Amino acid sequence: MKQQPPKFLLNLFNWFCHPEIKRYVEGDLIEIFQHYVKTKGVKVAYWKLTIEIIKLLRPSLMKSLEGSLRLNYYGVFKNHVQASMRNLRKQAAFSTINMLGLAISMSVAILMLIFHSELSAFDDFHQHRDRIFRVTSTQVGGAHSMEINRATASFFIGNELKSKVSGVEEVAILIDDLQADLVASGKGISVDGFYGTPDFFRVFSFALKHGNPMTALNEPNAVVLTEQAAKKLFGEEDPMGQVIEVFKNEFIEKAIVRGVVEDPPVNSHLRFDAIFSLSTLEEHVTDPYVKNLKSNPGELSDANVYVLLATDQPPRMIDQIMAQMIDGYNQTIEHPITHQLQPMESFVFSDTFRGIVGPTFSQRRSWVMMGLALIIVLSACFNYTNLSLARAIRRTKEIGIRKVNGASSPQVFTMFMTEAVILSMFALGVGFCLFLWLRPEFLKLSIDWSSGHNMFLLEVKNHHLLLFLGLALTIGFLSGIVPAFFHAKINAYSLFRDASKLKMYSGVSLRNVLIATQFAISIGLITTAILIRNQYEFVLNYDHGYNPTNILSVIVEGDYIDILENGCQQLPEITEISKSSWVLGVGGDNLKISIAKNEDLSQSTPFLVNSVDRNYLQMHDITMIEGRSFDRDLGPNEQPKEIIVNESFLKKLNLGSPQEAIGKQIGYYKRKLTIIGVTEETVSIGLTKMLFEPFAFLQTSDHSNYTSLNLKIETSDLVGTISKIEKIYNPLDIVHPFNASFYNDMIVRSYQSRKSEFLTISFLAFLAVVISTLGLLGMAVFSAENRIKEISIRKILGAGSLDLGVLLSRNFFIMTVIAGLIAVPGAIYIADTHLLVDFWKRAPIGTEETLIGFFLVLIIGIITTGRIIQQVISKNPIHYLRDE
Amino acid sequence: MGKYQLGEFEEIVLLTVGVLYNEAYGVSIKFSIEERLKRSVSVGALQSALKRLEQKGYVTSRAGEVTNDRGGRPKRYFELTPSGKAAIDYARDLRNQLYSEIPQVIMDLKPNKS
Fold first, then answer.
1. Which helix (H) or strand (E) holds A260?
2. Do A26 and B71 touch (CB under 8 A)?
3. Quick check: A55 and B27 CB within 8 A?
4. Which residues of chain A are within 8 Å of residue B76 when distances are taken between CB atoms?
């Protein structure tokens, strides 16, 4: 018995080889195989045969796609593609309208696909992403006894997990909110970062460029810099082992560089410039903050505890273990603490947690965005269906001939599906270009949504292309299925008998509902956009109770504010100078919150406090409802005795009317302060209810409280003046670059996220309007073509153009009015309860704002349908009736 | 080359078909070329060359009888056609003519032996 070649290789060969030569070549292959078995052995023969078969894979020897016996549909398919292309070309206007609608919706869908895939791939550069968890804490607390979820946990639980639980491989504890100024070799930078335990580099996959990841964070006062930070501080020099001076940090004075880590990527929830070793803090065990942090299981606000679980360790089991660990402590406190493990892939959506490090994105917002994208996509699909059904009458003859010639229903069906898919492929191309054009704008907007962090790249990766293809197929399928069914179903005979008697489809009322929905969405989005814009303008022009014109605020981070003030006083252009701890109406990083009590200490309220000097209130023209402003500055080490509060401060502490409140005393840090003035409510951090409404001005003798030097400038040469101030500033601070901006600009900037919201909704409104206009066009064409005979007869019987116009557009008017009746109140309600809910002074809503959206859609509709109607009316009726 | 389109590999296959005369089928052509030219020939390359030659009308093929060898698959024998013969002649003449026109100086060149 001769050695037979492996069956599967021959089967493979038989599968692709051209049937004409299959038998002979197979024989050749067997012979060659046996020849090699004889001369070179079985192994070589196998190998040679495989190579030969692979080399046989060439077009001239493969069976043709059509099949030699034409048993598959390749040929039919080819014909469909050809017919579709011809049809699309022939109805250029119609195809362009359809394609544009699909392309617009597709660009939005592409954007959302990439957006979502980046969200779900957040933090995925960590090797052990599926095994990294964060310990979160839940405890009832706060003023309203609400359940508070924190992304942080206690040092205690971290240590317990590390030492006592076998399923936990590593525990990394990070103490966040570390800010410091680093100075080395005459250069300085300001860094954000945290203290980290040595496990940091074992849990997370941040690669070290220099240094040993196992030991870098072991010793006290060790620091690991990011590449960027290292470059800024040391340039091309080798940073390893260098000693850095640390300022503005209570625990570190000098640090040694023990490593350089790559910059955290855009999709990292951990953002840092430097990591200090946590053992640095341990040198300060006597410090009450550190002591409390390290020993108190109830101290939940500073430690981020990350665990790396063993491969087969279920996280729910650790939750139970943690419950036992904290149980002893829970017995001693009023509100028990529960700890839970949060998986890494949900870090990005934990925007409702307190103590979050790095960027987060609201899950709800992402759903809303997906939902809007879906609406737009479906709307465009519906348009396609609508338009191609409207065109159906024109194509009945073509279909009839196809059917008479033997095309089966499935074949007609496939033909229409092919057409839809081809069109949607074109739309994919155009939509992709649109997406590329939209991308930079969208990236700019997204920064406002993720609390100022840049967390998206919107890069197109290879696997996305497959997704897009799938998207185009789905959209083509969705939009083509109804016309395809319709054409496949109809009887060839009825096609020729009387095309106009065809019952197009029974769901006319459904269609009206869908079109009305499209209108409603358009009107609603336009109205919402207008309301937001209205509010934005209103806020910018609102009289905040002070006059911010020509005031430049210089941010001061250091103890040189008095020197800078003296320097600025020398400049003749500067007419007034004042100091404050933060910028009124804007806030910023230095917002300070304190607790005040009423005189008998029965009630207390948190409030925002701004430490200012004597000039501040005069300089800003702050309107006082009652009382006076500070009349002198405090001497060194003198405690403040007077306070100026706003109206809601009075309400919170039940201090009566502004007149009654003057002279009353309040408790503040075990001292008594006398209220000497009352300001309007809005004199705070602006019109957004971000934090607390109660607010007060206070004096201070400690000038390090001041971080903003406010200069009133009167000059025609602003640029020159600012550069003069910069010259005074630069030698005083080598760490922080000169940071000064005009008050008005800062206010505009603080409402930036509102502007981006307005822009997004306007853009969506624009898309919705475009798409529904296209849909309307389809409907107008459809109803005009369907009723052409009726119109012709009416015309002959003497109907005027106006009557016909009214007849044809009545439907449209009714639908727009219904849509408007639903959409306008809906938009106002949504703006009221969701979008603008955090403004405490609302712009008045006039009829103008509410009706613009409605009329806009109405006018666009009239223009669109008007043209079609005019075309129909102006035609000679004989032309349509002569065959009757 | 206007009249007879013949690639280098095609020419070799065509010549070999002629040489093997009645015994020219896939495997024998393959091994024969491999032996003479000391280069490996894949079945794929050979079959596609044969297909082209057949399309051009230089060879014809006929099926051999079924035997127990080769897994019961018949052989496919190839034969030169008159126009195939003309193509070989043409190619040979062309080469001879070109060869004879090479100047004597170049004919004296010796291959570089190193």
1. strand A254-261
2. yes
3. no
4. 21, 24
A720: burial class by Cβ within 10 Å (0-12, 13-18, 19+)? exposed
Residue of higher predicted confidence among A36 and A688: A36
Q: Which of A26, A55, A56 sits opposite B73 (nearest CB)?
A: A26
> How does pLDDT run across A27-54, given as a tens digit for each residue?
888 888 888 888 888 888 888 888 888 8
How far apart (Å, rounded) are the C-alpha atoms in residues A242 and A184? 8
The residue of A2, A4, A23 whose CB has the most chain B CBs within 10 angstroms, and thus the best one to mutate to test that interface, is: A23
pLDDT for the residue numbered A473 = 92
d(CA A406, CA A693) in angstroms, rounded, equals 78
Confidence of residue B16 (pLDDT cuts 50, 70, 90): very high
Radius of gyration of chain A (CA): 37
CA distances from B23 to A438, A459, B38, B72 (A): 70, 62, 21, 18
Distance from CA of B7 to the nearest CA of A (A): 16
Residues of A within 8 A of B26 (CB-CB) are: 24-25, 27-28
CA A610 to CA A591: how far, in whole Å?
Answer: 8
Contact status of B42 with chain A (Cβ, < 8 Å): yes
Nearest one of A179, A172, A196 to A252, comparing CA atoms? A179
Strand A187-196 vs strand A274-277: parallel, antiparallel, or unpaired?
A: parallel
Closest alpha carbon within chain B to A33: B70
Closest Cβ opposite residue A56 in set B44, B70, B74? B44
Q: Is A474 buried (19+), middle (13-18) or exposed (0-12) by CB count in 10 A?
A: middle
Integer distance in angstroms from the first to the last C-alpha of chain B? 37
Q: Which element (helix H / strand E) includes A208?
A: strand A208-210
Residue B10 has a CB neighbour count (10 Å cut-off) of 19
The angle formed by the CA atoms of residues A296, A299 and A301, to the nearest 5 degrees, is 155
Who's near A637: CB < 8 A, 6+ residues apart? A701
Min Cα distance A68 → chain B (Å) is 17
Could you give the C-alpha distances from A450 to A336, A351, A367, A453, in angstroms and in order? 32, 9, 15, 6
pTM, two decimals, is 0.69
| Alpha-helical segments (H) within A180-314 | 200-203, 227-234, 279-282, 288-295
Question: What is the per-residue pLDDT across A219-229, written as a single tens digit (0 to 9) for each?
Answer: 888 999 999 99
Mean pLDDT rounded to a whole number for chain A: 83
Structure tokens at A720: 């020159």
Q: What is the per-residue pLDDT across A113-149, written as a single tens digit (0 to 9) for each? A: 998 898 888 888 999 999 999 999 988 865 556 778 8
Cβ-Cβ contacts under 8 Å for A810 (sequence gap 6 or more): none
Record: contact B42-A24, CB cut-off 8 A: no
Q: Is A256 helix (H, G, I), strand (E, B) or coil?
A: strand
Side chain identity at residue A686, one-letter code: G
Token pair of A525, please?
A: 């989005």
Angle between helices A752-786 and A92-120 in degrees, nearest 10: 150
Closest CA to B18 of B64, B63, B78, B98: B78
Write out the residues of chain A at the interface with chain B, using a CB-CB cutoff of 8 A. Answer: 4, 21, 23-32, 35, 51-52, 55-58, 60-61
- Residue A52 is nearest to which of B44, B48, B52, comparing CB atoms? B44
Q: Please state, in angstroms and rounded to a whole number, the distance separating the CA atoms of residues A696 and A673.
A: 11
C-beta atoms of A52 and B43 within 8 A: yes
pLDDT in tens, A560-612: 888 888 888 888 888 888 888 888 777 666 677 788 888 777 788 888 888 88
Q: How confident is the model at residue B1 (pLDDT cuts 50, 70, 90)?
A: very low
Query: Are B54 and B87 contacting, i.e. CB atoms less than 8 angstroms apart?
Result: no
Residue A258 near residue A239 (C-beta atoms within 8 A): no
